[in-house]
Amino acid sequence: MDTWLVIGLGNPGPKYAGNRHNVGAMVAAELVARHGGGSFKAHKARASVCELRLGMGPGGVPGPRCVVAVPSSYMNESGGPVSALLKFYSVDVERLIVVHDELDIPAGVIRLKRGGGEGGHNGLRSITKSVGTKDYLRVRVGIGRPPGRMDPADYVLRDFSATERRELPFVLGDAADAVESLVSLGLVDTQQRFHAR
């Protein structure tokens, strides 16, 4: 059974841990936490990784092998670690899933797609450049637009508001469900399930 690589994007260190821009890394942590027994380990590709089985196969058998990883580089240098992990685990780019924050989607809404533009997202831009294609799967976690005239760059590097933090466990759970559904059921079925909400 072919391996999947699931990348949760974020910036390293406690200063950024609660930022909106780190929601991808939070989803990766949720996936590892719900499959108890695993934990992140440092990898030479400049990332923290955990190998586990995600989703459910026919008859309730455990789903495919997945490497869940969070690059330990800054967001705008995510491509190097992603490219190195694809090579190390011999994962085809068709089985790369990148989980990231998305300004153009309302807060808390999950959307999925393969390919498309980067929408000014430096993490996606770096990955596309390093892997040589835009044609990878994305789980886009909506964070909404900044209020008033706030610069989007400042907005993404701020922590979630108190109201957003109350909803955050549900949002992270939905995004983790979307990743598991992608590896079990594929893109179209997962889009139908999540985009109908």
UniProtKB/TrEMBL annotation:
<dbReference type="GO" id="GO:0072344">
    <property type="term" value="P:rescue of stalled ribosome"/>
</dbReference>
<dbReference type="GO" id="GO:0000049">
    <property type="term" value="F:tRNA binding"/>
</dbReference>
<dbReference type="GO" id="GO:0006515">
    <property type="term" value="P:protein quality control for misfolded or incompletely synthesized proteins"/>
</dbReference>
<feature type="binding site">
    <location>
        <position position="76"/>
    </location>
    <ligand>
        <name>tRNA</name>
    </ligand>
</feature>
<comment type="function">
    <text>Hydrolyzes ribosome-free peptidyl-tRNAs (with 1 or more amino acids incorporated), which drop off the ribosome during protein synthesis, or as a result of ribosome stalling.</text>
</comment>
<feature type="binding site">
    <location>
        <position position="122"/>
    </location>
    <ligand>
        <name>tRNA</name>
    </ligand>
</feature>
<dbReference type="GO" id="GO:0005737">
    <property type="term" value="C:cytoplasm"/>
</dbReference>
<comment type="function">
    <text>Catalyzes the release of premature peptidyl moieties from peptidyl-tRNA molecules trapped in stalled 50S ribosomal subunits, and thus maintains levels of free tRNAs and 50S ribosomes.</text>
</comment>
<comment type="subunit">
    <text>Monomer.</text>
</comment>
<feature type="binding site">
    <location>
        <position position="16"/>
    </location>
    <ligand>
        <name>tRNA</name>
    </ligand>
</feature>
<feature type="site" description="Stabilizes the basic form of H active site to accept a proton">
    <location>
        <position position="101"/>
    </location>
</feature>
<keyword id="KW-0694">RNA-binding</keyword>
<dbReference type="Pfam" id="PF01195">
    <property type="entry name" value="Pept_tRNA_hydro"/>
</dbReference>
<keyword id="KW-0963">Cytoplasm</keyword>
<keyword id="KW-0820">tRNA-binding</keyword>
<protein>
    <recommendedName>
        <fullName>Peptidyl-tRNA hydrolase</fullName>
        <ecNumber>3.1.1.29</ecNumber>
    </recommendedName>
</protein>
<comment type="similarity">
    <text>Belongs to the PTH family.</text>
</comment>
<feature type="active site" description="Proton acceptor">
    <location>
        <position position="21"/>
    </location>
</feature>
<dbReference type="InterPro" id="IPR001328">
    <property type="entry name" value="Pept_tRNA_hydro"/>
</dbReference>
<dbReference type="InterPro" id="IPR018171">
    <property type="entry name" value="Pept_tRNA_hydro_CS"/>
</dbReference>
<dbReference type="GO" id="GO:0004045">
    <property type="term" value="F:peptidyl-tRNA hydrolase activity"/>
</dbReference>
<dbReference type="InterPro" id="IPR036416">
    <property type="entry name" value="Pept_tRNA_hydro_sf"/>
</dbReference>
<feature type="binding site">
    <location>
        <position position="74"/>
    </location>
    <ligand>
        <name>tRNA</name>
    </ligand>
</feature>
<keyword id="KW-0378">Hydrolase</keyword>
<feature type="site" description="Discriminates between blocked and unblocked aminoacyl-tRNA">
    <location>
        <position position="11"/>
    </location>
</feature>
